[in-house]
Amino acid sequence: MTPSVSVVIPTLDAAREIGGLLDSLLSQTVAPDEVLVVDSSSEDATRDIVASYADWGVSLEVIDRAEFNHGATRHEAFMGTAGDYTLFMTQDAVPAGDRYIESLIAPLEADGSIALVSGRQLPKPDARRFEQLVRAFNYPDEPSVRGAEDLPRYGIKTFFASDVCSAYRRSAYMECGGFTPVNTNEDMLMAARLIAAGRKVAYEPRAAVYHSHNLTPAQQFRRNREVGAFLAEHGSELMGASEIGEGGRLVKAVSAQLLREGRLGEFVAFGFDCAARLLGNRVGRRAAGGVEKGSA
Predict the structure, then answer these.
(1) From CA 164, how far away is CA 86, in angstroms rounded?
(2) What is the pLDDT of residues 49-95, one digit of tens each?
(3) Which CATH number fits the domain 5-210, given the four candidates 3.20.20.10, 2.170.270.10, 3.90.550.10, 3.60.15.10?
(4) Inter-axis angle of helices 217-233 and 264-288, to 10 degrees?
(5) pTM summary value
(6) Which residues 6+ apart lie within 8 Å of 66 measured at CB?
(7) CA nearest 107: which of 161, 153, 143?
(8) Domain boundaries, the chain
(9) Which residues neighbour 111 within 8 Å (Cβ) at sequence distance 6 or greater?
């Protein structure tokens, strides 16, 4: 029996992007049975564009901008869909081909113990060099399947997941209670809960999207302040895994490559980026009453 597929896309002022994303999703080799766009009261033409796709199985839900929460909003959206597999995307992620959905759900089809699959994030053409290298480090060519037994090997990466491009098995999601209200990393927390319940989490690089950001140090600080608070508050559910080792490997790998290429300007910029991540993480942990740990 062919599984049904739902797609959920949260949006905010996405008029420049949402039409192209919907066109790509509807032309996939495995087309979604439904697409739900949850819009946080956009002030541009987002809602009008989405409404124009109603005849193709695209529906729109509008919420107050102040009500958006990474965990709670996605959970409510999930409960509003019916697919055997529910896929999450962000408005600025662009599938890198017409086999994106087919590739993303393939691990779920192949192994009933897999409950969550994340795809590969490729840098967009405008990504600066150190961001390209960060993406290459975090999203390699090799697929992986991880369970509780892999914690000694992967550490914090055991719970690697990203709702920029992900797919959840409905039955497993429901058994674990779904997303809870969190301001960030709802995907990592869900991965941890699925693994604790005996399920597995997969990474499938053939399911690729173009997605990257050239964040300023101030933006990186604010982002990692949220992450630091999250890690402090949910450390027990992450089984005590630390992000220090993985962050250190990323810094060394990216820095070494930038120096090999003679990109001194990018090397300095990457240093500021890492400092902003580290400081933001520490401030977030302090605010949450947690133990300071580095992040990169």
Answers:
(1) 13
(2) 999 999 999 999 999 999 999 999 999 999 999 999 999 999 999 99
(3) 3.90.550.10
(4) 40
(5) 0.94
(6) none
(7) 143
(8) 5-210, 217-288
(9) 145, 200, 202
